[in-house]
């Protein structure tokens, strides 16, 4: 504000804006406002994460309030494997098909305390007449070997755990670990695709 | 003008700030969203609309339905209930740990109530977690169930709407006024296409006080013959007739619009909006509710 005189009336005169400093108080006020605005933004924006919506505060909270499912992931992995490999013959209810495929539900082969026999059957398949729950089965169909198809010990362990622990079928046998599966796999590797018979199983498992 | 450059830069800065906040930042937040595939079940969400529903989207747009109806449900808060999946094996100990529970008698046998058992309702996250942490002694399994809360949820939605819901909509018609109810879950609340068509033809048939305009041009009048009766609109068992006593049948556009409305559903849970609110209500109670709207 240096020039307070009246405008020059000469034709060359060009008006110009003067400059003056912003008062310190106002600068401080703007700074404080900006600071509060950023605090508010920080508390309300959910970390600018596209997955966080009102009323959640952060991604961690959204994760925390996800539905708690009443399922065991290992059991579900086993169910998936069962529906892939076993379901076609042994059926969804584990009941098998009368005359063709023996049942898994409440079967003494499945509910055996030691899962080894069941694992051997899965590894190399099974053929010939067998006895399930005291009932003689003379099945023409041969169970194929799944040892190669299910090469992941963890998956096979989950599958066997599912079948042995499926309470809806009346099965309540112990869980099976991947180590147990690996032990049986190493023992039966040499047998390859040659299916077991009940006789051969008994001989192989004799101590 | 001696400060032209400063003025230009100042304006540019102001515009850049607002562009960044309103265009840039949302693009950075949501721009990469793609349909989500559930690894366990292989389901994809959102599902692209099929033929009729896709055409119905255009009918919805042409008739300006979004002028009076929104497609966005808000959520105010969230609450939890605690559900027992498995009681502890020791009944005495379980009862000591859960004094809220009383034994039930069935078949002359005294036992803990059958599971799943609703133990607590309307808890905050902190309270629910607290119970889960402290009451573990008897081996009872407690599961948290999340309930979205809010006036919108109570009236219209099973859950809040999120960005993913609109991913395949071109254009997105959120709507900004609610002269009528929100429609983002209408396919769930009103699953009967005949009632939707009736509402489009003459809203006052089912609710005398409705302010919704009627859309008679989506319908045609047909000769009152027997073969036309299959298509014709009915209300309370009677055929709806126009002034000349002819039957009313929906044109393809009306069918498309109904198909689009039926495709608006919020019953698929998403990560961003965990938990589901009200169950899909049966059409009977829904009809009376809309009467009172």
What key attributes describe this structure?
heterodimer; A: 207 residues; mainly alpha; Cytochrome Bc1 Complex, Chain D, domain 2; 2 domains; two-stranded antiparallel sheet; 8 helices; B: 293 residues; alpha+beta; Alpha-Beta Plaits; 3-stranded antiparallel β-sheet; two-stranded antiparallel ribbon; 9 helices; 11 strands; 33% helix; 16% strand; flat; disordered C terminus
How would you portray this structure in words?
The complex is a heterodimer of chains A (207) and B (293). Chain A has helices at residues 24-44, 59-64, 73-85, 87-90, 116-124, 153-165, 178-188, 198-205, and strands at residues 130-132, 135-137. Chain A has 207 residues and is an all-alpha fold. The longest helix of chain A has 21 residues, at 24-44. The mean pLDDT of chain A is 86. With 293 residues, chain B is α+β, with helices and mostly antiparallel strands. Chain B folds into two domains: 42-75 and 152-292, Cytochrome c-like domain (Cytochrome Bc1 Complex, Chain D, domain 2), CATH 1.10.760.10; 77-148, Alpha-Beta Plaits, CATH 3.30.70. Helices cover 33% and strands 16% of the residues of chain B. Chain B has nine helices and eleven strands. In chain B, strands 6-3-7 form a three-stranded antiparallel sheet. In chain B, strands 1-2 form a two-stranded antiparallel ribbon. In chain B, α2 (51-62) packs across α8 and α7 (193-201) crosses α8. The relative contact order of chain B is 0.16. The chains are: A mainly alpha (207), B alpha+beta (293).
């Amino acid at each position: 504000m240096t020039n307070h005189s009246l405008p020059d009336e000469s034709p060359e005169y060009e008006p110009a804006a003067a400059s003056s400093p912003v008062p310190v108080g106002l600068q401080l006020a703007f700074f404080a406002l900006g600071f509060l605005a950023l605090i508010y933004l920080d508390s309300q924006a959910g970390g600018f994460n596209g997955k966080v919506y009102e009323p959640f505060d952060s991604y961690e909270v959204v994760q925390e309030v996800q539905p708690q499912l009443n399922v065991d992931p290992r059991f579900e992995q086993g169910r998936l494997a069962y529906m892939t490999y076993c379901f076609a013959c042994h059926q969804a209810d584990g009941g098998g098909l009368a005359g063709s495929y023996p049942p898994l539900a409440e079967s003494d082969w499945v509910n055996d305390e030691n899962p080894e026999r069941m694992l051997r059957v899965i590894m190399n398949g099974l053929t010939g007449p067998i006895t399930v729950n005291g009932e003689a089965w003379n099945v023409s169909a041969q169970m194929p070997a799944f040892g190669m198809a299910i090469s992941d010990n963890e998956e096979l362990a989950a599958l066997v755990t599912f079948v042995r622990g499926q309470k809806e079928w009346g099965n309540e046998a112990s869980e099976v670990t991947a180590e147990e599966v690996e032990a049986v796999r190493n023992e039966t590797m040499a047998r390859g695709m040659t299916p077991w018979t009940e006789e051969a199983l008994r001989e192989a498992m004799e101590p | 003008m001696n400060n032209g450059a400063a003025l230009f830069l100042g304006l540019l800065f102001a515009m850049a700030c607002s562009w960044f906040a309103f265009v840039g930042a949302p693009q950075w937040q949501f721009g990469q969203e793609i349909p989500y595939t559930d690894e366990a079940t292989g389901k994809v969400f959102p599902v692209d609309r099929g033929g009729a529903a896709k055409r119905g989207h255009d009918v919805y747009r042409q008739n300006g339905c979004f002028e009076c109806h929104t497609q966005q449900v808000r959520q105010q808060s969230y609450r939890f209930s605690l559900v027992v999946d498995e009681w502890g094996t020791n009944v005495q100990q379980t009862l000591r740990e859960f004094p809220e529970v009383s034994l039930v008698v069935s078949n002359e046998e005294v036992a803990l109530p059958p599971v799943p058992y609703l133990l607590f309702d309307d808890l905050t996250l902190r309270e629910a977690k607290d119970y889960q942490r402290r009451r573990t002694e008897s081996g009872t399994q407690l599961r948290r169930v999340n309930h979205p809360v809010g006036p919108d949820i109570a009236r219209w939605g099973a859950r809040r709407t999120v960005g993913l819901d609109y991913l395949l909509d071109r254009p997105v018609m959120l709507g900004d006024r609610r002269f009528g109810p929100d429609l983002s879950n209408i396919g769930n609340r009103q699953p009967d296409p005949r009632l939707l068509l009736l509402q489009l033809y003459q809203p006052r048939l089912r609710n005398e006080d409705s302010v919704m305009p009627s859309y008679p041009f989506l319908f045609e009048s047909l000769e009152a013959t027997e073969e036309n009766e299959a298509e014709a609109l009915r209300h309370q068992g009677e055929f709806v007739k126009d002034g000349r006593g002819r039957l009313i049948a929906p044109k393809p556009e009306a069918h498309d619009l109904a198909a689009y409305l039926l495709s608006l559903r919020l019953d698929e849970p998403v990560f961003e909006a965990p938990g589901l609110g009200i169950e899909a209500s049966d059409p009977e109670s829904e009809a009376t509710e809309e009467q009172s709207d």
